[in-house]
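Lecture 7 notes. Example A: sequence first, then its structure tokens.
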Amino acid sequence: MSSFKIKLSLFLNYFVFAILLNSVGTVILQVQNNFDISKGSASILEAFKDLSIAITSFLVASYIVRIGYKKAMQIALMLVAIMCFIMPSAGSFLMTKLLFATVGISFALIKVSVFATLGIITKDKKEHLSLMSFLESFFMIGVLAGYFIFGAFVDNDNPRSTAWFNVYYILAGMSLLAFLLLSSTKLDESSVKKADLAESKTLGDDFLGMLKLIILPLVIVFIFCAFFYVLIEQSIMSWLPTFNKDVLQLSTSLSIQMASILSASIALGRFLAGLLLKKFDWLFVLSGCLLLAAILVIITVPLTKDISGSPVTTLSDIPLVAYAFPLIGLFLAPVYPAINSVILSNLPAHKHGSMSGLIVVFSALGGTTGSIITGHIFGAYGGQTAFYFSLIPIAVLVILLFIFKKIQPKSAPATSQH
């Protein structure tokens, strides 16, 4: 089994879905222009994406071992390729809802399969933690690329132009490429399938096994950690393009492209975390990073209050705070891959599919909650208040991480079965 080719395929799959999933911030901005949608109404796109992720994960994750990780990823890639080909000719607010629902369903299959596959191809907890961080880092590189791809199709002179829908032809092609690479890659899933069949004989047993995980104290605390982290990340990521346009007065294309700094900083943060977490205790790294994130919010958000004037259309006129605030991603970055790796490393490999399903479910619920709350606060009280809101879940998450560390077992099963 070629470990390199498998890893390359997983990275490419994540790259494609990074662009699709995190285009929601850009699309939220564009549908306001194209279809005269309010901020509160536009925020529903996050729900179409995240709730479809949550529902699919909940229903499928418990028996995805039986479907097969590779087959599940192939289905996901083909679904989004078809929808992306349809999107430009059927562009409407309804179509964007259907697209994000399909992307959500497909990503649930991808993420559960990718996370579970890591348990097969890694040898120990350290390798698992490191590879998880690098994978999540590459995901953010995909998000970064997405901002520039979408930004290149936006017409600043005609806010109501629908030319940006043509970007989906490119995304359809990328999905097909990822499908072909995966189809040519061999993945030996026999060890986890044998272990799963030894434990349960029916689909009902598989589903019950996933539900039983929820009652474990370590899993309960983890679920809250994942929920609040994604709530923070998505509330900022989904609304940063709109914040740049409405508060910082940037042009539409610059608003989208400048939001890429957040993705770049998260990518860099996760790459560095892959190195730091090999040497330092994860709680020390994560709590320190969250403290720095809170400090950055407190320092930078007040700097956006006195910005006014004509729209900014050139890089030289962009205010410094537009570069500074997105650096919060550098400090938020290590949290998600680290806590995911910790919980998965404390379970046997054949349980990773079910646990990955729970990760995806509660991450999705956190994402849609954060985006909708932020959208309504933004619409009612302005962008500064909306981003100050992030301080509350940051404080809650720090407390939860200490509890998570305290109840973590001193010894845990290996991440893979070789």
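Example B, a different protein, same format:
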Amino acid sequence: MKSVALFGHARTDVGKVSTKALREEGKVPCVIYGGTDHVHFSVYEPDFKLLVYTPNTYKVKLDIDGKEYRAILKDIQFHPVNDSIVHADFLEIHEDKAVEIGIPVKLVGNSIGVRQGGKLVVKSKKLRVKALPSQLPDFIEVNIDTLEIGKSIKVADIASTAGITLLDSPNNPVVSVNTTRAAQEAAKAEEKEKSGKKK
């Protein structure tokens, strides 16, 4: 999995007044846990651009006043009105300890159902996985070549990769092909043509 770098500054005061002042300066209050201590810090909101406003998932190289941490973004909170980032939680990662994280789904292939006029519907853009940091993939590949109209590929259908455990329910659909009016009409025309030939 690829990494992005973030630079932050430690916070000594974590009260409401201090937090409000940080946000007025365009900074996001953050915390990193998973190590010996929780570390409170702040990061300028524009610096989250590559980490948050992307379909990808990244590890984070976090530099807090010169001290480096390897982490993943565990939780992020947005303002309900203006969508600004109001808080972020990071989890410090260690090579010998598995982590849970959402990994993007990457569709490959050309669905039979889509070629027949069906509509491809992505049900899950990310899947939750558990793995050691060194084994986290950039994406989970799902082949849709054999996906027909009215069918779906479920979590249970995805080939497991060594060292990676899928945490979503096996029965959860990941991608499906729904029938459309055009597909229904094409099927009726084909059926009519077959019955005509039989006569």
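Note on Example B: The chain has two domains: 3-93, 100-198. The mean pLDDT is 90.
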